[in-house]
């Protein structure tokens, strides 16, 4: 008979004593449980003791977290958090260097526990930490433990970062700016500043002033990968907290220092594989840089702005400079206006008498004008060839440069997500972005020539404009999905993907769709589905058994600790626990926490999850909502919360958990995988029917004969 829900069987250890095996009554007050445990070992003053997990993070057991204790858990009787906090509070003030160092080391370890942290902070322990940093000149092991303890204590959000003194902050900054400092201290200092920057405008300005971009660039060029990562984290935090004007100035300075080229050469193409954290920071850097175009994208052209009108006229003058060399006095004002209108029509403006009207639409706004001007000034030969070639064609077949440029700019903004907030978890960046200054403009120069090339291949007329731009969008997205490492490679590949190739790809996809729509084939699909769905279920469970590395996301920092979760080989228990950076696939024995599958009640996703309700509902958290899921267990009172690293992992985990719960797999990945497997299986089954038309309806079954006299009568043969 299974034990009651409110009873868990556990072991309790103590140094120098035989462990106790007890049945913990969850309804019994924790103080009474401790009294019984202490009495069994004849220990007085039970209030001075506490229970904590023997493995993993060794969290203290409290009334609020005791329900997390599972059957088979191993606990340890230890000094209570308040007693330990008092002891360490005294220890870190000791004049004995060894005692002080050991106390700080222990403090750094225990500060991860929220109960201990609360006790230590309530004793004004942070003030002692401040004193050690502000007054001490030590830069060795003692300082490293102090900074580590401070970081862990601040993680619990009991104290505001705005309470830090300027002296303390400048001391932390000095460790970042000094050369002869241990790398671990610089890493911790950079991490502290990274956490500090987003909390207030005042702290942002202080850090920005004290830690120069040149200093951060020096750390980025370090061979120590962890130091490089922390420097990048602080740089990203500064960029995200800056105003638009400050961000633009910072990006301009970083461009002068060739940051992109350094990243392209020494980080993206380094010998070491790119970690998830660095991939995210590169994505954010790319997003921040591209979003500098947002203001121009959302600004309509002002027909009364002389600067903008000059830019517009420069397009006409560059394209038709020979015709424009005729002296101004040779034509009347009316004739000159007529000539300008004719030239703007040749440039492809819809409103040739007032071309500024074409640029009133925002987006793409002035960004389209900027792109056209950049193309005309930086590749004048290609620009002149484009315009003159089309102005000499028949009216019906000319490719309108201005109209195409405006629409292409809009397409590129949509593909590159310009104007959208940075995702909190995304890692998808384009390597070629970091290999080129003026990336957006250079990409436009390649793609506008692609428009002209595709227009000619399609023998398009003005009525086909939308069709051409649709093909161009497909050419660009298909090529970008290949992640070319340079713009030159992108140019080669996108030009190779000509209109005839697009047609072939579309035809292949259409034929594949058509051949699977015949009635007999649809019936065969339905018969094959159960078997293939079972195959997908097994694959999902196998993925859960292999496990996945997840990241905890806090309200202040983007990504915090790492933890790992995996399903036991017998599919009966989910094992999970915190792991260190760099651990790929920890053995199941090293994961101390567990949830029996039998105790799982429900799967929550997106907005239903408790950890997404705690976060703000802004656009920046949309990606978190798409990756969040929770397992409800133990009578719907407790949840294990997940943020999947990718949408792919989200689909596999939610499918696998639904299988364990006996429910249907609902992710979009299930349908994709099922379609692929059905397609492969159908092709194998229909190999013998190649080039044979399959009728929609089976041939009719003939009517039964009027009599069966044609049957041979064996009885006469026997006589």
TrEMBL record:
SUPFAM superfamilies: ARM repeat (SSF48371), PH domain-like (SSF50729). GO terms for molecular function: SH3 domain binding. Keywords: Apoptosis, Phagocytosis, SH3-binding. Residues 307-480 form the ELMO domain. One of its GO terms (biological process) is apoptotic process. Signal peptide: none annotated. It comes from the Eukaryota. Involved in cytoskeletal rearrangements required for phagocytosis of apoptotic cells and cell motility. Acts in association with DOCK1 and CRK. Was initially proposed to be required in complex with DOCK1 to activate Rac Rho small GTPases. May enhance the guanine nucleotide exchange factor (GEF) activity of DOCK1. This is ELMO3 protein. It comes from Platysteira castanea.
